[in-house]
Amino acid sequence: xxxxxxxxxxxxxxxxxxxxxxxxxxxxxxxxxxxxxxxxxxxxxxxxxxxxxxxxxxxxxxxxxxxxxxxxxxxxxxxxxxxxxxxxxxxxxxxxxxxxxxxxxxxxxxxxxxxxxxxxxxxxxxxxxxxxxxxxxxxxxxxxxxxxxxxxxxxxxxxxxxxxxxxxxxxxxxxxxxxxxxxxxxxxxxxxxxxxxxxxxxxxxxxxxxxxxxxxxxxxxxxxxxxxxxxxxxxxxxxxxxxxxxxxxxxxxxxxxxxxxxxxxxxxxxxxxxxxxxxxxxxxxxxxxxxxxxxxxxxxxxxxxxxxxxxxxxxxxxxxxxxxxxxxxxxxxxxxxxxxxxxxxxxxxxxxx
Amino acid sequence: xxxxxxxxxxxxxxxxxxxxxxxxxxxxxxxxxxxxxxxxxxxxxxxxxxxxxxxxxxxxxxxxxxxxxxxxxxxxxxxxxxxxxxxxxxxxxxxxxxxxxxxxxxxxxxxxxxxxxxxxxxxxxxxxxxxxxxxxxxxxxxxxxxxxxxxxxxxxxxxxxxxxxxxxxxxxxxxxxxxxxxxxxxxxxxxxxxxxxxxxxxxxxxxxxxxxxxxxxxxxxxxxxxxxxxxxxxxxxxxxxxxxxxxxxxxxxxxxxxxxxxxxxxxxxxxxxxxxxxxxxxxxxxxxxxxxxxxxxxxxxxxxxxxxxxxxxxxxxxxxxxxxxxxxxxxxxxxxxxxxxxxxxxxxxxxxx
Amino acid sequence: xxxxxxxxxxxxxxxxxxxxxxxxxxxxxxxxxxxxxxxxxxxxxxxxxxxxxxxxxxxxxxxxxxxxxxxxxxxxxxxxxxxxxxxxxxxxxxxxxxxxxxxxxxxxxxxxxxxxxxxxxxxxxxxxxxxxxxxxxxxxxxxxxxxxxxxxxxxxxxxxxxxxxxxxxxxxxxxxxxx
Amino acid sequence: xxxxxxxxxxxxxxxxxxxxxxxxxxxxxxxxxxxxxxxxxxxxxxxxxxxxxxxxxxxxxxxxxxxxxxxxxxxxxxxxxxxxxxxxxxxxxxxxxxxxxxxxxxxxxxxxxxxxxxxxxxxxxxxxxxxxxxxxxxxxxxxxxxxxxxxxxxxxxxxxxxxxxxxxxxxxxxxxxxx
Lengths: 353, 353, 179, 179
Description:
The complex is a heterotetramer, with 2 copies of chain A and 2 copies of chain C. Helix content of chain A is 64%, strand content 1%. Chain A is mainly α.
């Protein structure tokens, strides 16, 4: 058992809220099993900004804006905003693109992995195995001395992602003519505006306070066995989500005919392994990167921008898996992602110690 | 007169080549007055990658690939490749986006400004005045202590833009199904493949050796009056381009009915002022940023990625001017660009000295 | 202490912000349909989608008529002809699927629906003007029952297994989720 | 000296690179028109463009026929009717321009061509199937001569000046350059 201090209870509350919102937003109108999914939402948002032209995947998801601005608010209130940057910025940007490729090949970010699992989608088990394996490999790398260099205090860097968040909020509220909104497809499914935005803000604040992170939970479980609050948070999240899915009739156990899933288990494994490995090296899962960017971390901000670009590219290039399976170029991109990781592991290893 | 050393003659040769290629590639098939235009080419390339859906502006311009890879080759041959990064990365990425906005509002990068001017397009004079004014303001800022922080040696950063260049070259040669190529509009106009690629490689190598830079030429002229080789290079470029334009019958003096030009002189001035100011603060015009990225400068690499994103956004959001003038959101974006510059000038000023 | 440089920049910020406000508040002559030459993009997209739907309806009307009057062979022939003119058009696959379904040819019907849905996801949308949600649901429900039973009898039949995969694909698409 | 960690990563690089090579060299069953569910994008775009052109030709055929037989008033009426159904469609503006041109109404013809070209640049393309390069060139040459002379006589006439601006716009577009 971990110590039952303030941080423990913060994690539990954040996980509870995430579980309720993750299922609840889908009940309220978001796509099936996608009440919260960073990668789906970023693909939708990139499409709304015109960065891809899949007319069924264009919607500026207010949850994303809420996550960033919620973290800004919370970090501001509790004096944890810290403008910093300069740690392997270009590599992080590219890592953001590959995060989206890995998520696209699996169909969903690590949060959605658990939402799929708790709705009875057994195909997500391959992804879970991949995620755990990826985190484990990443941890071995960190232990062997891979380090992207220390971030420095940069007074002028950390404010720009919060500014972009405000700009996107203005876009969402005033809807300039160039924004695209799908009228069909999964991007046309969305919970009521204020509910989405409010849930995003609340979760952003809670996640900033509690440092909630899916890959971080798995990493800490490896490092500290059961003594990390994050693992308990993950368990709470799973239990709440299963309960809510059963209650709302969205639970359907099985391997076939699941929404937003495919049967190429090897590639589900590989996609999530890529995400897990990348996340450990850059210090957090896609969701956590949004929160850190809101706290003034310009390096996480570059990951976020990379994820937005990635959201455009995976759709524009057709890299994302569909129910029919993983497309050829999606497989190629996943393998290129592993080459990227292996090369960086060699390049950034500190051999002095 | 500057000293007539080896560097002087390198600059003269590079300028000569740039003048010939700048007019010659338009004669060979590139759009009118756009034999070389970094912003047009990046807008075309962003479109080819699917980052905007203007079906008349999608072509992966091999000149761009040539510039980067030529610089890599030359820097490798002469042992000037130096992997570095970490100087205000996120700000540079955003600066890249605003560079494309300024260029879009004027219609063309600083190189195309001179190509338009040397083809007799008098509307470009407003842009020239803006560019000079922008460089002057930027210089005053540098003198007052604005500094984006020193770049550090980062072994794993500088290789990724060269890798992206190689990837794009493979894309260009093998044309995967997701690449888009316009069949109409200015992106359907292009010089023969190998000519474009060869000219790009050659110019990339010469520009790397000579440090050719449009805004750098103007900056050095302010700083050193006539003693800088870059100013003489710029003059050679102008003389050669005027001569070639006259010779090939492309010279047509006038204010009206010019290709790719508009009559809103205030906004031509403002767009190029934005570009000049930004370029001085980030150390080089859009062309120079491509070359520096090829030399291993990951910070310039982030500017390049910012310019690619910007190339997508200016088209997707309709920010670029057309012959009809500057659209509303283009004006808004230009003013936001000045807000960005003014804020950064205050944030990044070193007040200790 | 802000010096002259800082003051100049603060004044600059105020001036530019004021200009921005002025610009935004001034009514735009070009407002409405046009933004600097390109149509308002949302409207442009709508127009295209609408033109496309109308075009499909016009072009494939003979097929629909022939199918309605039970002349399946003639309808399939007409589809083949249109397929040469518009290769890969998913609407043709969907109509072919409906004809094959009417002829009780489960396996080719399913395959044809799969091609159509892969080409254009609007067919599994409940709300789209192109929607075939109802008929595809029927294919899946009936198909899983019938073909499922056959697969149990002939577990080695690879073409039956492929049809099962197709049916699972359609079931997945009908179930929704992020694509 | 590379240690065990480095060796593992080098082996990993080789294995993944080998896998990539194998993947690229294996013939893809889904190759050709389909890539993972979406049509090959270039083909998809071509299809859409072609469907659009065909649709425009079909839909606006009555207007073209009426214009050809000199029934300009009826043609303009039909255009108005179609404009209600497809608001902002640039093809209508181009056809209206041609009718007005045939009626020697320079100023409204020019304005109509400008709207059409702003909506779709293909009309000033020499090669496009929708090209009106020839007729727009004629408008510009004639217009600059005629309206230019009128402007010299009435330098204060703002509507003439606007037409001059429109003509310069069309001239600029015909001259090409990066858009």
